[in-house]
Amino acid sequence: MLPQSVLSFWETIRTGNEGPELLLDPNLKLWALIPISIVMILVGVAKQCIMVLVSPKSKTVPRVKLTEILYIAKARALMGNSSNLSTESFKMRQEYLAQVLADGKYLAIKPAKDEKTAMENPFTSPGMTDAMTSMALGNLVNYIPQTVIMWWVNYFFAGFVLMKLPFPLTIRFKQMLQSSVRTDDLDVRWVSSMSWYIISMGGLTPVYNVLFGGNRLSKLNVSAQQQQLSQSPGGPNPKDQMKALANDITVFQHISVLDNIEDRVLKLYS
C-alpha cells in the first residue's frame, strides 16, 4: 500500500493539475458566463444587420463583362486542374482557349476605350470609391462594438474565473486563458471572463455562418469587389490578361494522372 502523499502526487500528474483546485459558485454561469455569450451573439447579429444597411448596393454586371471575366477564370482553372483531364480533352480545350483569348473574341471593352481610360486616376472611379467606403465602414462597425464590449466585460466581470476546460493544456496557454487573473499557481485550464470574451470573438464565427450564411455571403462580397476593381480605371487590362493567358496555355506542359490508367490498373490487380 503506497503512502497517501505518493498517491496524491501521482493523482496530480495524472489529472494534469498545476495548482490548487477551485470551487466555483454556480451563479457565475448565470450572471457572468451566459450573459457574456448572449451579448456577444446579439452584438454579432447587430453588426451583420448594420453591415447590410450601410454596404453599397450590388451593381449588376453586363453580360459581355461577365463573359469576359468567366473566360479569364476558365483559362486559369484549366491550367490549375489540367492533371485531372486526359491528354485529348486538354488539347481540345487548349487549342480553343488559346485561339479565343489571343483573338480577344470575348472582350467587353474595345481597345480604343481601354487606351482612353488607362490614364485616368483609379481613385476617382465609382467602383473604387464604393469599395474603399465599404471597407472603412466595416472597420468602424467592427471596432466600436469590440471596444464597448471589452470595457463592459473588464468593468463588471474583471477577475472572475468562469469555467474549467476538460482537457489538459501546456503552460503557454496560461496568458491567453487567464487574462485579468493574476495568479501564478492556478491551473492552466481555468478560463477567466476576459479570456472567455476573447475566445468567443473567434469561436462564434460558425454560429454567425449558420445564422447568416457567412461563408457564402463573404465569397459573394469578395467576388463583387473583384469585379468592381476589374471594371475601375487603372485596374488590370483584360486584353493584356487574355494575351498573357493565351501564351501561357500554348506553352503549358500537360501531365495527366489519367494517362495509361488502364495499363496501370491491370498491372496493379493482375
UniProtKB/TrEMBL annotation:
<comment type="similarity">
    <text>Belongs to the EMC3 family.</text>
</comment>
<dbReference type="InterPro" id="IPR008568">
    <property type="entry name" value="EMC3"/>
</dbReference>
<feature type="transmembrane region" description="Helical">
    <location>
        <begin position="194"/>
        <end position="212"/>
    </location>
</feature>
<keyword id="KW-1133">Transmembrane helix</keyword>
<feature type="transmembrane region" description="Helical">
    <location>
        <begin position="148"/>
        <end position="167"/>
    </location>
</feature>
<dbReference type="InterPro" id="IPR002809">
    <property type="entry name" value="EMC3/TMCO1"/>
</dbReference>
<keyword id="KW-0812">Transmembrane</keyword>
<keyword id="KW-0472">Membrane</keyword>
<dbReference type="Pfam" id="PF01956">
    <property type="entry name" value="EMC3_TMCO1"/>
</dbReference>
<dbReference type="GO" id="GO:0034975">
    <property type="term" value="P:protein folding in endoplasmic reticulum"/>
</dbReference>
<feature type="transmembrane region" description="Helical">
    <location>
        <begin position="30"/>
        <end position="54"/>
    </location>
</feature>
<protein>
    <recommendedName>
        <fullName>ER membrane protein complex subunit 3</fullName>
    </recommendedName>
</protein>
<dbReference type="GO" id="GO:0072546">
    <property type="term" value="C:EMC complex"/>
</dbReference>
<comment type="function">
    <text>The EMC seems to be required for efficient folding of proteins in the endoplasmic reticulum (ER).</text>
</comment>
